[in-house]
Amino acid sequence: MQFIERTLLSIIILRILSGGIEITAALVMFKYNDLSKALVINSLLALVGPTILLSTTLIGLYGLAGKISLLKAVCLVCGILLIITSLKIK
């Protein structure tokens, strides 16, 4: 088996954690079988997604520090922030 970089492993673990949270939320929604509770759970998930996205991006940028230009890193962070902002706009 090949050695996995620590930053890559961190991203993988965060994504697995995120998937586990999503599946657990779906199971809780199924268990309660109540639309209002499902909407509350779904609203809480709306916080998890962008947090994981931003965290994994920052970890990735940290791992690539010195390998990509500062301009590319700034553009990537700005793109992520635009995605998150566009999700919040009604």
Automatic annotation (TrEMBL):
Which keywords does this Swiss-Prot/TrEMBL entry list?
Membrane, Transmembrane, Transmembrane helix
Which regions span the lipid bilayer? 12-32, 44-64, 70-89
Keyword Membrane in the entry? The reply is yes
* InterPro entries per record: Uncharacterised_YqhV (IPR020390)
**Name of the protein:** DUF2619 domain-containing protein
**Which species is this UniProt entry from?**
Allobacillus salarius
